[in-house]
Amino acid sequence: MLYFRNDYGNGAHPAVLEALTRTNMDLTAGYGLDPYCEAAAETIRDLCAAPGAAVHFLVGGTQVNKTAIAAFLRPYEAVLSAASGHICVHETGSIEQDGHKVIHCPAPGGKLTPEILRSMCAAHSGEHMVVPRLAYISNTTEVGTVYRREELLALRAACDELGLLLYCDGARLGSAMTAAGADTSFPDYAETCHAFTIGGTKNGLLFGEALVITEPSLQPYFRHCMKQQGAILAKGRLLGVQFSAILKDGLYLDLARHANAMAARLTAGLKDMGVPLLVDSPSNQVFPILPDQTVEALEKSVAFEVQEKLDGGRTCVRFVTAWHTAEAEVDELLKTIKEALA
Amino acid sequence: MLYFRNDYGNGAHPAVLEALTRTNMDLTAGYGLDPYCEAAAETIRDLCAAPGAAVHFLVGGTQVNKTAIAAFLRPYEAVLSAASGHICVHETGSIEQDGHKVIHCPAPGGKLTPEILRSMCAAHSGEHMVVPRLAYISNTTEVGTVYRREELLALRAACDELGLLLYCDGARLGSAMTAAGADTSFPDYAETCHAFTIGGTKNGLLFGEALVITEPSLQPYFRHCMKQQGAILAKGRLLGVQFSAILKDGLYLDLARHANAMAARLTAGLKDMGVPLLVDSPSNQVFPILPDQTVEALEKSVAFEVQEKLDGGRTCVRFVTAWHTAEAEVDELLKTIKEALA
Amino acid sequence: MLYFRNDYGNGAHPAVLEALTRTNMDLTAGYGLDPYCEAAAETIRDLCAAPGAAVHFLVGGTQVNKTAIAAFLRPYEAVLSAASGHICVHETGSIEQDGHKVIHCPAPGGKLTPEILRSMCAAHSGEHMVVPRLAYISNTTEVGTVYRREELLALRAACDELGLLLYCDGARLGSAMTAAGADTSFPDYAETCHAFTIGGTKNGLLFGEALVITEPSLQPYFRHCMKQQGAILAKGRLLGVQFSAILKDGLYLDLARHANAMAARLTAGLKDMGVPLLVDSPSNQVFPILPDQTVEALEKSVAFEVQEKLDGGRTCVRFVTAWHTAEAEVDELLKTIKEALA
Amino acid sequence: MLYFRNDYGNGAHPAVLEALTRTNMDLTAGYGLDPYCEAAAETIRDLCAAPGAAVHFLVGGTQVNKTAIAAFLRPYEAVLSAASGHICVHETGSIEQDGHKVIHCPAPGGKLTPEILRSMCAAHSGEHMVVPRLAYISNTTEVGTVYRREELLALRAACDELGLLLYCDGARLGSAMTAAGADTSFPDYAETCHAFTIGGTKNGLLFGEALVITEPSLQPYFRHCMKQQGAILAKGRLLGVQFSAILKDGLYLDLARHANAMAARLTAGLKDMGVPLLVDSPSNQVFPILPDQTVEALEKSVAFEVQEKLDGGRTCVRFVTAWHTAEAEVDELLKTIKEALA
Known about the structure:
By secondary structure, chain A is an alpha/beta fold. Chain A has helices at about 15-20, 35-50, 60-70, 85-90, 95, 115-120, 150-160, 175-180, 185-190, 220-230, 235-245, 250-270, 290-300, 325-340, and strands spanning about 1-5, 55-60, 75-80, 100-105, 130-140, 165-170, 195-200, 210-215, 285, 290, 300-305, 305-310, 315-320.
């Protein structure tokens, strides 16, 4: 079975596993108050050129989004998100569970823009409406598109103008920084976002998202919020150990770059075959549109997900590449598709 | 530095780490919908003689308590807990965060009794008060005491009489089942509790608590609640792999038995020295009462926690033993205390 | 100043005020547990031909929507509402504050249909998404349109098919039952809705909404939920007294009929002048589209609200008639508009 | 039937009812944005010598406590309250419903002290515990005792020292200011409390509590929180009209003084008979301890509430006097008790 279902289908990159094994019998303080976490946090502050940032390590993506937003907002404040945003549809109302409305913004290509922010803020006024307070973006987005530096700068300027916080869900931040045409690196996120995450789960860790809070007013009492949400890991040092391993010598970006290259190879092959794509994604998610019977045929030998049923007997599917995807696997997938299309 | 701070200061038992390493590059479905989790769940159902139980794997203790209680209760329903209960004081109001009052019950030895349940239910009537609906117990308790089978049966009978759910936080369930004088095993929990947890974090796993829901009416939609709480692990199979490893060939109970034996050795040594204990704990937590200056002296070479400042220049401290605690470490600790007392 | 701002700009109908005055010095039990509330509830059960219905009296519309929905849903369940629904935009996220997502459904004319319900339910599946559980409709809708009996029957059939509860916000239920072309009466709501409200505030009371819960499984512990939400009025009998007065001898419907007639007179006059309307509303809200300068001119002598800024220098405004609106006031308004348009 | 059940058993004082009747057909803006509310707020700011205070009018006591506390606290913050506090036991967990723990403090006589505050704050430290942030007091307390000015000053000093907000539930504030031995007046509350309420429901209004927020940082966006909680009354001016009427010419204090005098007459009579009292209450609630059979006999002709079953065949009951209680009624009650005791 070829595996293109997602980028979290296996365990950890060998370097990460080795670090866990090496430190396994060390005895440290719990809850992330250990030297490994401190070192990893320091590495992140350095990478981001953000010496004043607070860095926290959480286990998963829904957890970090939920915990951060619950901590940052007052009760009547709401989140602006592209309608395709992960928090809008795929987190079972976890933001609302903590009391906050998520305002779904129509956003072509899954990306918020200053115009969207201005328009949504303008539509909310007076005490009978929630107050938009946080703009949630994902980079890469849920459809594989990527924000460039100028877009982030423009979003931040709009946020400053509108009194919004800018929060970037970086579950696939490595992919966003290494995609073809991308021009962002860690310091750009520290510069433009009040808070953002560096995703580990989808790029080589067993689990783990690092939350970087650059805005000083959002930093106090964050660990209280984490604990209240059940988001402090007892053996918290597991997160520090893993992040230190993956961030060493550029490994984090190397892994993402590889995944993107495999996706580019896949995209090129699909284009050669004339297969249309939902969006032109430069990152590690590819969304071809295929005839229903082709999709059915593929399911026998390929693991993948259906993105959306379309009309005209067509289906948009999603193939995801990962740090461990081999060229041969991509080529085998392309061959399988070609045969199924024939 | 001697380490008696807690039972989650290191990584995983070698057998667990080996299983994670062995399965590391397998590619499976995410979110716990994989063969490893299914196998571990089946093992637990077998061990508990509870074929109809729903078994879920969550990362941590606060998370599982919070998720279960939020899923089980309606908005006006409340929890009864011993005032020393973990959810009362050490989880930063995580139950209240989901809208539920935790009623602190005075409970000598950290244990609820049928009398306490009846008395608290009698004190709550009418629509101006919350409705007690779930009795939360921990086994072992937060002060190391242990519920016996007859106590669990009596609690369940009282719960049935009062319309309460019985929930057991088994963060240290292995210790509870293997303590001196203990007479419970897995099926007793399935028989008496509507839901209970089997703690992994404090007994050999990197992380992980198994939630066993025996009451059928509490089973539907539980995974929705987990996702909403950020409590579904992307690489969920890590939990299945670990639980399968630890539950194999009685390892789980063996590790707990060892920790208890080390604690018993420590207790015996303390008694020999005439050191008074806060409670007579048969499990892996020991609570000696020491002169303040002794405590201060110990801090130089022993990692432990202060339980409570007492009057008369005395302090109650907590020593915790674990699966990896060596006899020599206990003896060294006793020797250190003896010297500090001299 | 001509007053067409809303239908809650003054106090109570004289008959209601008289009843309050007459009973003012009676001494009764508090919290709605008094003979006046019981009598009013009985009257409502009779009017609705719903002897098994639970009837509760709450102070306001946001309060009753919020309390009912919080009581009816489990944590992961969500509400389907027309995007124009009051709970979507004008209640400051009060439903989300209790943890529930409100799914905004595109709905022309402000009305949900079986097709919309089916489509939205089909789009939500699996534990990563909320579970749609309650369809929220308003009758009259926020844009003055009215559900007919066959539409309610079709919605209920769809709800039964989809496992949804049907909830009708009847803040303007009197207007809905007496609008031109309307064919519903109280028993139709009891027959088709699991719960609905009979609005008093906008039809002659000082304040008050009656909640009728026909679905037996939603009835238990509702007063606990009310109290928890701060929604039990200490002198609850004020609500019973008022509802008894307004429901006597058909007064409730008479008042609504009058307001509708005044709106119809206004609509006819506007059409005569060739003024376009946003929707063809048969109820007591009228939405003419006027040139911006006309709107500006009107503001000097008429109290009303702006519904929406449109392009082309036009604005949609809202005029609301009430039980106390006089023919002469409508004619004066029409004259004022005519002059402003000239 | 003699009525001593509570102080909200009837409607409004005639002056209040007259004001409502007189203004009934006025047409104003809704939601409390009307001249009546503005005038009443101005009167309150004058009475309190607090020109910078924000004043809001809400319908009921649970509602105002819940809305204020939800607005003032961040998610991990908790409330300190005497265990007898209204929010602890008689509001169905309404504070917890919004996510905040209420810490029950043992407090003799129902009153918090600086020592209690210091001790409870000292017991909460670190991110595994909630952060006490708001001290909730009631004046008069739930057992009729009264805080004096020096006590309020000491509490505020302790709050400043501990980083706490001081909130006073003034459901019976009139009674507290006019009780025998009391020495507080409106400005004392504005001086010592970050926020407090002036209760109308229990002292002559149909309903209504005025919330005075003196702390500037707590003022912004409060109306958003009110709306979100369903706590903005559509015909909000009803609250302004009533408060203006009751605060005119000292009527508010006169009514409370009368109720207190009637309670004092009752207390004196009980003492003459040798009936013991639960507490020595100087306000309008009296708590005699009577033999069970006397209580039973009284129930035939007197409306009152049982406070607590005591041992030895005794029961503590509660008699409440109100602005409308007549001397003759008190004397009749005393006579009835005397006969029942004989």
